[in-house]
Amino acid sequence: MDDKREAGLELDPKFDAAGLITAVVTDAGSGAVLMVAHMDAEALAATYATGEAHFWSRSRQRLWKKGESSGNVLKVIEMRIDCDQDAVWVIAEPAGPACHTGEASCFYRRIAGDRLERL
Amino acid sequence: MDDKREAGLELDPKFDAAGLITAVVTDAGSGAVLMVAHMDAEALAATYATGEAHFWSRSRQRLWKKGESSGNVLKVIEMRIDCDQDAVWVIAEPAGPACHTGEASCFYRRIAGDRLERL
């Protein structure tokens, strides 16, 4: 166990080989998980500094402010990091649907065997 | 947009190059994010079939039932999948602390600039 990283009080994100950590965003009001995405060091810093969630877009290979085109920004209420510092939990107030499909959350389907059910 | 995967009702997980998808576990009671880990196809199937959360341990390179040694299993209430099917949200009832540090959640520290604050 990496004691300093796991029990210390210094921010020391453990980025993967691609320079990313996982970011989970939940709705501060409902508690629902809104989306899961990735942050590089710049996105993590921008999220903290601006109070709006930023990610690294793996498909576009660039910094991406959530809502930059849709307007559906995620206002950051609090950021937490997990024990081994390779995942961030962003508690946020969404300005609109978090999912590009128009759903409030990207997790709008329940697993039912080999099938999915809309919530 | 991959319409079938993103809007369809067929379970079709998009595993990464290592055969994994991200799994986020929240506490069915408090709504807190308990942990973030990874599932391969076998872990995903075992989680659904047994009603207890299983993951792929990247450090041990094997299937891992959460709580197999500690007893702190995660009883699955519901499983959801996100729009592009590369992340799963497991809503669970934890039998005990979810974190190996003994904390209820792995996310027990808040980010405050370059520092962390215990909750």
UniProtKB/TrEMBL annotation, chains A, B:
Cofactor names from the entry are: Mg(2+); Zn(2+)
What does the entry list as the binding residues for Zn(2+)?
A: 83, 99, 106
Q: What does this protein do?
A: Catalyzes the hydrolysis of the adenine ring of phosphoribosyl-AMP.
- Hey, which family's this protein in? In the C-terminal section; belongs to the PRA-PH family.
List the signal peptide residues: none
| Enzyme's top EC category | hydrolase
Protein name, UniProt field: Phosphoribosyl-AMP cyclohydrolase
Q: Which residues bind Mg(2+)?
A: 82, 84, 86
Superkingdom, taxonomy of origin: Bacteria
Cofactor: how and how many bound: Binds 1 Mg(2+) ion per subunit. Binds 1 zinc ion per subunit.
Domain Phosphoribosyl-AMP cyclohydrolase, first and last residues per copy:
35-108
UniProt lists the gene as hisI
Keywords linked to the UniProt accession: Amino-acid biosynthesis, Cytoplasm, Histidine biosynthesis, Hydrolase, Magnesium, Metal-binding, Zinc
Please give the catalytic activity noted in the UniProt record: 1-(5-phospho-beta-D-ribosyl)-ATP + H2O = 1-(5-phospho-beta-D-ribosyl)-5'-AMP + diphosphate + H(+); 1-(5-phospho-beta-D-ribosyl)-5'-AMP + H2O = 1-(5-phospho-beta-D-ribosyl)-5-[(5-phospho-beta-D-ribosylamino)methylideneamino]imidazole-4-carboxamide
Q: Name one GO biological process term.
A: L-histidine biosynthetic process
| Gene Ontology molecular function | magnesium ion binding; phosphoribosyl-AMP cyclohydrolase activity; phosphoribosyl-ATP diphosphatase activity; zinc ion binding
Q: What's one Pfam family here?
A: PRA-CH
Pathway of this protein?
A: Amino-acid biosynthesis; L-histidine biosynthesis; L-histidine from 5-phospho-alpha-D-ribose 1-diphosphate: step 3/9; Amino-acid biosynthesis; L-histidine biosynthesis; L-histidine from 5-phospho-alpha-D-ribose 1-diphosphate: step 2/9
Is the keyword Cytoplasm in the record? yes
Q: What is its EC number?
A: 3.5.4.19
Do the record's keywords include Zinc? yes
| PANTHER family attached to this UniProt entry | HISTIDINE BIOSYNTHESIS BIFUNCTIONAL PROTEIN, HISTIDINE BIOSYNTHESIS BIFUNCTIONAL PROTEIN HIS7
Instruction: Indicate where this protein resides in the cell.
Output: Cytoplasm
HAMAP family from the UniProt entry: HisI
